[in-house]
Design a protein that fits this description.
The chain is of the alpha/beta class and 271 residues long. It has 6 helices and 13 strands. The mean pLDDT is 94. Bound molecules: S-adenosylmethionine (SAM).
Length: 271
């Protein structure tokens, strides 16, 4: 008997395409921030587990920096793009005088699965970039489930490694209703965001229009997110054993604003 609860459709083909086409700056900055932190901590290779990896933009950058990647996402179209992108990542150039065969060619594996079902293999880092823990597509999502992931990540991460992620917080939609229109080559997206402060819920209604050989195709998606308090998340990380820092930005690519916070949580070396 399958005990898995029903998971809502998320990031269908056209929105996955649009996200990959034009909204990769957060993942790009996140990968730079993570690679810099790992290098600073002397971790120049090892496994990074990417929860809600999307189309693999950060994963490919991490591979180029020499890391192995295990990515999870509930969107099959996202994972399809991630696999294609990873297959095109060239092996790292060997340092002068080192034969190419002696250089580790990073491995990448991408699975269509909820992050709440992820297997946490021993690793040096876990990421949740792009409000991974806020999305309510999986009915198990919520603050307690996020904290359970913190705990599982802590056990899997090697001493000195990190958990890095960002979360949507109360005040994400300011004022309470936001209307956005974006367009790119062959597509446009209209999104309406409403925040329900008492319920600590954010709803994004996203209408994606994309041109195809048979004309325009319109897809509607409803994204519901639970909003988490920054200080409560910080304390939860500390209670699991992490030494968390709040991030102001992901590299120079994305600066966090009101209602959007991020953490770099270090697993200390054994005392
Ligand atoms: C804003 S996108 C970010 C994707 C990627 N990390 C990036 O920054 O480009 C959010 C992603 O979270 C994924 N997602 C939402 N809930 C999830 C869950 N329970 N398990 C795995 N992936 C999830 C969505 O499918 C989507 O790809």
């Amino acid at each position: 008997m399958d005990a898995t609860p029903p998971i809502s459709d998320a990031y269908l083909e056209d929105l996955a395409y649009v996200h990959d086409d034009s909204f990769g700056f957060i993942a790009t900055g996140a990968a730079k921030t993570l690679a810099a932190k790992l290098t600073e901590r002397g971790l120049s290779s090892g496994l990074v587990i990417e929860l809600a990896c999307g189309s693999g933009i950060s994963s490919a950058l991490l591979m180029s920096a020499g890391y192995d990647v295990l990515g999870y996402d509930i969107s099959a179209p996202m994972i399809e793009i991630a696999r294609e992108r990873a297959a095109a990542v060239p092996p790292p150039a060997p340092p002068y005088g080192v034969p190419a065969a002696a250089v580790h060619a990073p491995n990448a594996e991408f699975r269509v699965a909820s992050l709440y079902d992820a297997e946490f293999a021993p690793c040096i880092a876990v990421t949740g970039v792009g409000e991974a823990f806020n999305y309510l597509f999986d009915p198990r999502a919520g603050f307690e489930s996020m904290c359970a992931v913190f705990s599982r990540a802590f056990d899997a991460i090697a001493p000195g490694g990190v958990l890095m992620f960002d979360i949507a917080e109360p005040g994400r939609a300011m004022p309470r209703l936001e209307h956005h229109v974006w367009q790119g080559d062959g597509w446009h997206v209209v999104s309406e965001t409403i925040e329900f402060p008492h319920e600590r819920i954010l709803e994004r209604r996203i209408k994606t229009t994309r041109a195809g050989p048979d004309g325009e195709r319109v897809t509607d998606e409803l994204h519901r997110l639970a909003l988490y308090d920054h200080e409560e998340a910080y304390e939860a990380l500390r209670s699991v054993g992490f030494a968390p820092l709040t991030l102001a930005s992901y590299a120079e690519d994305f600066r966090f604003g009101t209602g959007h916070g991020a953490f770099m949580a270090v697993k200390p070396y054994a005392a």
